[in-house]
Amino acid sequence: MEWYLIRKKFKAYKILTEEFILDVHKRMLNDVWSWAGEFRTSEKTIGIPWHQVPICLKQLIDDCKFWIAHETYSNEEIAIRFKHQLVAIHLFPNGNGRHSRLMGDIVMKHIFKEPRFSWGSHSLRDKNTVRKSYINGLQKADNGSFEDLIKFSKS
């Protein structure tokens, strides 16, 4: 996380690319999984069919570029919508939540030049009220309402 948020400065046009998005996952998790940074090749209980992952990621990247260019949403909502869709597509066999939160932070810091999110200021691993608030925000975003997820991301 430090490498992406503190040390490195990225050009906005490089962040919204398949190569960059896969590289973030690989750098985050290559010590854990040999397949880190590679699209999943099997079905999961969540996410789209695995063979549609690259196509849907391309659509999301194009959508995000449009949202930015046309100021369709606030900066925070663009970053949260992007993060949310990364999880919904479910690019990887594992690590999608951590990866998508970091991508949301990268969008805020390097594209919008704003502070990164705090994501509840606690670990989301433990099943506690913070995690429940996060899951609740995700579920509402699944139905098109992003307010709670944005609020949580800043808490």
Textual characterization of the structure:
With 155 residues, the protein is mainly α. The chain folds into two domains: 1-32 and 48-117; 119-155, no CATH class. Helices cover 59% and strands 0% of the residues. It has eight helices and no strands. The chain has helices spanning 2-7, 12-15, 18-29, 53-69, 75-89, 96-111, 129-142, 147-153. Helix 3 crosses helix 6 and helix 7 runs antiparallel to helix 8. It starts with a helix and ends with a helix.
| Structural class by helix and strand composition | mainly alpha
**Mind telling me the C-alpha Rg?**
15 Å
- Kindly state the mean pLDDT as a whole number? 92
Write down the overall geometry. Answer: globular
- What is the count of distinct domains? 2
Q: What helical percentage do the residues reach?
A: 55-70%
Counting DSSP E segments of at least 2 residues, the number of strands comes to: 0
Distance between the termini: 19 Å
State the order of secondary-structure elements, H for helix, E for strand.
HHHHHHHH
List the helices and strands and how they pair.
Layout lengths: L1 H6 L4 H4 L2 H12 L23 H17 L5 H15 L6 H16 L17 H14 L4 H7 L2
Helix pairs in contact: 3-6, 4-5, 5-6, 7-8
